[in-house]
Specification:
The protein is mostly beta strands. It has 2 domains: 14-82, Beta Barrel (Thrombin, subunit H), CATH 2.40.10.10; 103-183, Thrombin, subunit H (Beta Barrel). It has 4 helices and 12 strands. Strands 1-2-3-6-5-4 form a 6-stranded antiparallel barrel. The longest helix is centred in the C-terminal third of the chain and has 8 residues, at 176-183.
Length: 185
């Protein structure tokens, strides 16, 4: 049994998965997550860069058109809005950032898979690039995935993975303070 299967077997991530979406553009896909019941979706700027059309797909199979409300390549974050409905399941942003050694979970859509849950820990909560390094393996399609604390609050947004050295494949995430700055919180 895979790590993701083991983590999701008891249903404890089911509510979180409802708010995690696949962000589809004409040139590929990434992950995003709903942050308000009115349909605001957070993802990476590079996932939607130059996209002519954007669609978000939910775990129940529904798909909605989304528009970019704002984006910032410096934070590598984009805020999308689904305009045709309200009442979406949403994830909460944490008030406090993740600390080194904190256990975290990443839910995303890597490669050809959907709703993969990985467990990891925060390696560093600060660095010269102000990123959170996590021990979860990250693959194409994970971009925009929420990094969740053990209490289920978002503490970061996956944007890349280490490409060389002994940490190759480990995830990098935009830290919570940058997410709040981008959103104007």
């Amino acid at each position: 049994m895979s790590e993701s299967d083991e983590l999701t077997e008891d249903g404890s991530f089911e509510e979180f998965e409802k708010a995690v979406v696949t962000v589809q553009t004409g040139s590929g896909h990434g992950t995003g997550f709903v942050i308000s019941e009115t349909g605001e979706v957070l993802t990476n700027e590079h996932v939607v860069r130059d996209a002519v059309q954007i669609h978000v797909a939910f775990s129940d199979g529904t798909m909605h058109k989304a528009d970019v409300v704002k984006s910032d390549p410096n934070y590598d974050l984009a805020l999308l809005h689904i305009s045709d409905e309200t009442g979406f399941p949403a994830l909460s942003l944490a008030d406090e950032p993740a600390e080194a050694e904190d256990r975290v979970y990443v839910i995303g859509h890597p490669l050809t898979h959907s709703f993969i849950v990985n467990e990891g820990k925060v390696k560093e909560s600060t660095s010269s690039f102000q990123v959170i390094e996590i021990t979860n393996a990250v693959f194409p399609g994970h971009s925009g995935s929420p990094v969740l604390s053990v209490s289920g609050e978002v503490v970061g947004v996956v944007y890349a993975s280490q490409q060389d050295g002994e940490q190759s494949g480990e995830g990098l995430a935009v830290p919570l303070h940058d997410v709040h700055s981008f959103l104007g919180n």
